[in-house]
Amino acid sequence: MSVPLDPYLLGRTRRIPTDPGWDPDRTNPDNARIYAEYFTDPTAYELPGAVVISDDVVPGPHDPIPVRIYRATNAHGPVAALLWMHGGGFAGGDLDMNESHVTSAEIAARSGALVVAVGYRLATDGVRYPVPLDDVEAAWQWLVANSDALGADARRLAIGGGSAGANLAAATVVRLGAADRPLPALMLLAYPALHFPLPAVDDDVHSVMAGLPPVLRAGASAIRAMFANYAGRISDLPHEVVPGHANVHGFPATRILISEYDDFRPSGELFALQLAEAGVPVETRLAEGMLHGHLNRTPALPEVSRSLDFFAAAFTQAGAGVQIRPE
């Protein structure tokens, strides 16, 4: 394979068969070993010493919603707060995956912001839209209502997520805006899935990604299946399912993290253009040599650490975090 990936990832992608006919069934013991070798980092993650974690549940419209709260012990006074959603194609992921646990802990440690990770209901066993989004909106309203008790500054409340979690974050903003409710001060989106169909990948990027194992790609059929499973259909999708097709005027200031070699890259890039054209302050970061979901890798990787710094800096840079729109 000749792919200019980060060397750390390149060594792991070589362990995955590139044969298009390979059955990626994860219940197969040999395949389970291959996946474990690819996804498991060589050293265990150590929680930053300045972060404390607590688990809680918040009321939801369907069932109580588990949340995990990350608090920097060296932060003083009312702090900014971030509601964060993991990815997993709407049907996978949990509060323990790196994209949730490690990302939340690192943003809290690096910025001093309070981070609330949301264990929204997954689109499995008949659960579909709008249930996951309902959970996220309920968690957001809980954060707004309890900001004082949590020690958070109600003027600096942010929302964000990775991949499908980024979709849910942006969709929550769409829903809040449609109801003329206060919006977040800031939105943080990592390699978001915001459009269907996805915009095409540039030829140069496509030629590089052609060398990747098919299981690490998100082809048209996989994207179609993801949205069909989540929404129950693939036609006439509401803007709450594909927020990239919504009117983004009035959206909060946004940071978008993009993986260089990722079928979802064009969605993040297009959304950045849409926001800019609507007059929304937007910053992007291209994580060089990274694949989709790179926040699931160890923050010991320099490029992953830089991505975490990009999000953390949204809370620490002068002037970052505008006030929420008053009711």
UniProtKB/TrEMBL annotation:
Alphabetized SUPFAM superfamilies for the sequence: alpha/beta-Hydrolases
Keywords annotated in UniProt: Hydrolase
Domain Alpha/beta hydrolase fold-3 residues, every copy: 82-294
GO MF annotation terms: hydrolase activity
Superkingdom, natural source: Bacteria
Identification of the protein by name: Esterase
